[in-house]
Amino acid sequence: GEQALVGVLADRVHQVTSLSQTETETIPSVGVGWDVSLIKTIGKDHGAFIIVLDMEKIILPLVA
């Protein structure tokens, strides 16, 4: 298909961080309580969980 330029606007950013491959974990497929297909990976930073969303899977259906 054709490519589309898409922008995302955030109301607020609390913190920007980077995660290495060693700081990420696989996503459990059961017991989470939400659609894990929209999550790219899960990481931890200073004891807090960070969920990295798969923005392509979230936005692509909106512009298709």
From TrEMBL:
GO terms for biological process: chemotaxis; signal transduction. SUPFAM superfamilies: CheW-like (SSF50341). It comes from the Bacteria. This is Purine-binding chemotaxis protein CheW. It comes from Insolitispirillum peregrinum.
